[in-house]
Amino acid sequence: MTPTMTLTAPPASVAPPAASPAPAVTTDWLTRCVADEQEFFATHWRTAPAVLRPADPPVDVFTVAELDGLLDHGLLKVPYVGLVHEDRHVPTERFCEPRVVLGEVVEDYADAASVRGLIRDEQATVLLRYVDQWHQGVRTLTGALAERFGRQVEAFFFLTPAGTQGRPVHRDDADVLAIQISGEKRWRVHAGPADGNWEPSREDTDPGEVLLDTVLRPGEVLYVPRGFAHFACAVGDEPSAHLSLTVREVGTANLYALLQALVTGTVDLPGRPLDDAAMVAAADTLITHSRETLAGLTPQALIEHARTLMRGALPAE
Asked: All domains of the chain, ordered by start, with CATH?
């Protein structure tokens, strides 16, 4: 029987991981990510990329060994897991298999042998999406950061074979904190977008001046401001693993939607007024309600309310 190939060097096999215990509530997760909080916000936030070297980086929150165990455990499923090359996604049928659950066929469960084969033979990158939604330790980390940033924070895990590039040059609609877990990765970060009409996508034109060209090593954290074009390539002899924390920001679409909900959400109007007089009365009620609602609403309050809704938290009373 052919032995199982694991993603880590030792050990040769990894047992399914136990549920991750919740870290102590006294942990200062922001300091563990950015080192000096005051300097980070004063010098780098939304301004410039930077390599941060915290004294106690959260490299223990999610490891390659844990990925090994999850693959062997058999519950990883698309879209939470994917395989990608620089310019394309690996079709799910190449690394997934269906199962029969309660008499029904359920698709897209990741097959450990197929995943490892694609990593070995085709140098595919493993991408775990929204790790904060299904991993307790990562959820604790992102939840704490969301409180400090006042914004939604999500987590993605990348395992990239040595000498390969997992994604093309692109811009993210989020500020990114990339925590290097193991191996090394060379990052190049270019200038930010020219105006507010940019799109979060691959950058096929000139990405602008290179602001930072660095090799990230275990325990170091790379900060990439929202919209700054970037790409990365695993270097050295070992695969690179990093946990990417994305700090989401609202867009004008969020503001439009929230404003409409505030204006129309609590007013009681007939769906189809019966005559002109009823139509005028409905319009007058809506205008009056809108004026009263917007009278005390400040731009900053609208933005903060939208950020709160993105985080899935209840607004403060």
From this structure: 29-248 (2.60.120.650), 252-311 (no CATH)
